[in-house]
Amino acid sequence: MGGRTRGRVPRGTIRTMRYRAKMSERLGLAAVVFAGLTAAACYVGLPAALTVGRRLGARPIGGGRPLPPVISVVIAAHNEQADLPAKLTDLQHQELPAGVEMQVIVASDGSSDETVALASDHPLGPVVLDLPRGGKAQALNAALALAKGDIVVFSDANSRLGPEALDVLLGPFADPDVGGVAGRQRYGDPSQAITGESEYWAYEDQLKILESSVGSVVSATGALYAVRRHLIEEVPPDVTDDFFISTGVVAAGRRLVYEPRAVAWEDPSGSPASEYRRKVRIITRGLTGVRRRRGLLNPIRHGHYALVLLMHKVLRRLMFVPLSAGAVGMFLLRNVHPLVRLATWSGLAAGALAGLAVRFPESALARFKPIRLLSHFIMVNVAAAHAVLNVARSREFSVWDPERPDEPGTGSHPDRASSTASST
What we know:
alpha/beta, Spore Coat Polysaccharide Biosynthesis Protein SpsA, Chain A, eight-stranded mixed beta sheet, two-stranded antiparallel ribbon, 15% strand
């Protein structure tokens, strides 16, 4: 009897263990529910709400106002000798609306290659600014100071344009309520992409169509967009310029609409490492831009746009928090039911495969679409966590250093840069 008594676990200890196990399950369940609801709201709820809004009351784009006689096209460039000549030739062949002339400005931000010489010698005859190195914002501000057009078109040096691109892009400006137009970014050969970037832009494309149909798209991409000159503010050095400039349209009470027929073509992403650095830089500056434009988050003044901005540009950037909580929750619940245990280990295995796909981008595994999408999704959320840390530490990105792909002649552009950073 005495031996058996010494081997028993005290009842108090058993109750404590059961209590801890129950609390662990409850915390795990709460974390999983939190992650599920947040992800559903972000990735499913927003498109669904916009779809309902479009059916209840879409806002068509009007017309009637003639276009201004002059438009300005601004290209900020740093070491873009591989892509700039072709871009200027694309602009030379644009089929502009009748009575509209085009001024092209190339602002070189301290280029050390033949960018300035090639631009100066091009038959298009652009205005060329050979600026000291100071960052893209400085180059854009210098170019804007010389812009003669009432409408300014912005486009990256490596974005290729069809002959109808600007004609289509300018069309919505016939509506006096339209202050800006966002073009569409597409990839020339998505099969060569080593991340899920092309699929990401396909999702973004549909989201922008819905956003624009009920009012304004959240923001434009630097590949191609246009804004009325008087709505453009000086660009701060610590923000994503396309976000800051395009959201200024909404801040001024005008519409920022989406024109999917105005297409800018780009090559797929470079290496996973360069794509990750690009994402960190863009999200860091994007969050800083939202902070500067925080007035747009006021639903009393900006209505549903404020909620869409919150969901699209803030909540999505912070999704790593509920997703991480959900992963921990699944681990805590792994012993509740065999299916939960299977889902937990399956998720870990899928994550490991996605990591291998990033490590070996030329492998068959990396070309398998579900794994490619998962690896891109994980990479974006890790980059977002990195970016939030940058914002918390007041780390800025103001100067770009384009990373050239391994393939010669494919070029690069500022948004694919790993930027030098400075703390403030």
